[in-house]
C-alpha cells in the first residue's frame, strides 16, 4: 500500500494531556498497522501481521524540543508502540542533533524487556544547537543495512520540530538537503524502506518532511505544538479508519498560499469515483467543478488541476487503500536538455521532463496522457519552422528508459545558422512550454570516397580467398554500401575551425566483418592541409568494412571536443592482375639530393641578437646600481660682524704707503727671536731703499726747483 498523507492541525487544547498519551498509542497502532500489515485497520497488541517489521525510532534531540514537547510525549508514545510488536519484530532507537546517537541497536523486542527499553529511552537527552536530519536518516539506514534480513517490512519514524540545520563544519544546509532528496531517498525507496515524519511545530520544515515521507511512500503528519498532538492523532485515526465507510478513506494535502497551481494525481483501482473538497468546504467532481478547475478521469487515475487554489487543507475523498495513492504537484516545472551548439548533419539528443520543485516527476499512467512536442525555427532569416516532431518515453529513438518520465528524440540539422527550439508538454488539464536558442556550426569532420577509375563497380559473386562469397561481402550494398578495389581513396576533410583547437587528432576507424576494430593511418594532403587521405589498399584484406572518421581535440579552456562521421559500408575486392601486370621489384638508386639554396640564417641571427640584448641589459643594470662618489655640500659660512670690521681695518692700513712698525696692530704680536729678526731687518732695508727709477726722480727733482 502506498500512502501520501499530509495532516495539518491548526487548533488544539492543553486539556486531557494524559489522554494524549493514549492517543499516542493510537498513533503507534495506526502507523504500524497501516504501514506494515497491508490493510487499513487498527492493529491489536501482539496480533498477527502479514510480515514481521524492523522499526527505527528517530528522535530529534535538539534543544528546541524542550519548548515544543515539554511533556516528552514523543517518548511516551514510543513506549506505547512497543505493545503492538510481536515476537518476530525488531526495534531500534536513535537520537540526533549535531550527530546521531544510537541508544538501542536494532534487536528483537519482547514484553519482558520493557524496563530495559525505558532505561534506553532515558538516555536520550535534549541538547544541541543543530538539527542534522540527513545525519539521522543516514544513521537509521546504516543500522537497517548492517542488520539486514529478508522478508520484513522496514520503516523509519522521524519526529522533529525544526529544519535542516547541520553543523557548518560538516557542510551547508542546502547541500545536505540536496544530498538527502536526490541521492539518499531514492536509495531508501529502492530498498523498500519507508519513512514516516511527524512535524511538531510551525518552525519545522514541513515541505522537507512531506518530501521525505512522500519520496519513500510514507506518511507525513503535522501538529503546531505538542499540545495539539491529541487532535492530530484523532484526525489521523479518522483518516485511516473512517466511520462512514470501512473501505474508502479521506486524504488531506496542505496547499501553500504562494502556490499558483495545484495538480492532484490520484491513482486508484478501475471504476473508482473520487471527489475533491476545498478548504472552504466546496465539493468538486468530474461533473461538478468550477471554471478554474480542470479534471481528467482515466481508467486507473484522475488528474485534477486547480488554478489559483485557496491556501489550506484540501481533501481527496473516496480513495480505497488497496494499490492507490495521491500526489500533490504544487510547483510543477518543465525542463528541456539540448546543447546550445550543434554540428551540421550530426544528430543531437533532445530530452524533456517535468519537475516538482527539484525532483523529477515519474508517475504511473502519467506518461500515457502527456504529449511532448518540439519545433525548430531559424532566427537569422525569415522562415517557417524547418523541423517538427514529438518526444516519446518508449525506450526507442534515443529514449534510454521506457516509462521513466523522460521524453526523448534526436534532432539533426544540415544547414548552418541560428535557431530557436520550442518544446511543449501538454496534458488533459495543464500545459507547460519552454524555448531555447541554439546555433548550428559547420561540420567538424566529413568522410567520402574517391574512385580514381570511375564509379564503384559491383563485383559479381564469386568465391573469395577467405572462404567467403562475394555475395556475402556485397551484403552491405543493399544498405547504401560501396564496392571497389584498392584504387579507391578514403578522403577525410576537417573544418577550418580546428585551427583554434589544441592536440588535434584525426583518425579513420574500420570494423571488419569479424568485428575487429582497426585504425587506418591517414596522410595529410600537400595541397590542402585540411584534407587527409588513405588508399583502400591500406585495408588488411578483401572483405566488407564499416568505416567512420573521428576527430579529437581540446577547445579553450581545455574542453574536450569529439566528433564522428556517419558510418560508411565499403567492400574491397582487389582488381585481378595478369602476368604482364605482375609487379617486378626493381632497385633504383635514389637520386642525390639537390643542393638546397642557401637561405638567410634568420634563426642564428635572432639568437645572437637576443644574447647581445640580454648582456647589454645586464651591464646597464650593473652600472646603474653601482654606487657613485658624490661631494657633500659645503655648508654656507656667515662671518660675524666684528670679524668683518677687523678685516676692513686691516685692508685700510695695508693700503697706506708707509706702515709704522710701532703700529699697535704689530705690538700685539709676541717678541721675535734673533733668527726671525734678521730676515725682518733685511726686508725693512729693502723696503726703505727706493727703486732706481724713484731714486733718479728724486735726484732730478731738486734741480728743477727754482
Number of domains: 4
Q: What is the overall silhouette?
A: extended
Going across the biggest sheet, name each strand in turn.
3-2-1-4-5-6
- Specify the CATH class of the largest domain: Alpha Beta
Outline:
The chain is α+β, with helices and mostly antiparallel strands and 706 residues long. The chain folds into four domains: 1-241, Rossmann fold; 244-330, Jelly Rolls (Sandwich), CATH 2.60.120; 332-441, Sandwich (Immunoglobulin-like), CATH 2.60.40.730; 445-572, Immunoglobulin-like. It is 25% helix and 29% strand.
3D architecture notes:
The protein is of the alpha+beta class. It has 4 domains: 1-241, 3-Layer(aba) Sandwich (Rossmann fold); 244-330, Jelly Rolls (Sandwich), CATH 2.60.120.380; 332-441, Sandwich (Immunoglobulin-like); 445-572, Immunoglobulin-like. The strands form 7 sheets. A 6-stranded mixed beta sheet has the order 3-2-1-4-5-6, sandwiched between helices. Helix 1 (17-36) crosses helix 3, helix 1 (17-36) packs parallel to helix 8 and helix 6 packs parallel to helix 7 (206-215). The protein is extended and about 145 Å long.
Task: Give a topology summary.
Layout: H1 17-36, E1 53-60, H2 65-68, H3 73-81, E2 90-96, E3 100-108, H4 114-122, H5 133-146, E4 153-160, H6 173-190, E5 193-199, H7 206-215, E6 220-222, H8 229-240, E7 249-255, E8 261-267, E9 275-277, E10 283-284, E11 293-297, E12 301-307, E13 312-319, E14 325-329, E15 332-337, E16 341-343, E17 348-356, E18 359-360, H9 366-369, E19 371-378, E20 387-391, E21 407-411, E22 417-426, E23 431-441, E24 445-451, H10 470-473, E25 482-484, E26 488-494, E27 502-512, E28 517-520, E29 523-524, E30 531-535, E31 543-555, E32 559-564, E33 568-572, H11 602-625, H12 641-654, H13 664-667, H14 674-688, H15 692-704
Parallel strand pairs: 1-2, 1-4, 4-5, 5-6, 16-23, 25-33
Antiparallel strand pairs: 2-3, 7-13, 8-12, 8-14, 9-10, 9-13, 11-12, 15-17, 17-18, 17-21, 19-20, 19-22, 22-23, 24-26, 26-30, 27-28, 27-31, 29-30, 31-32, 31-33
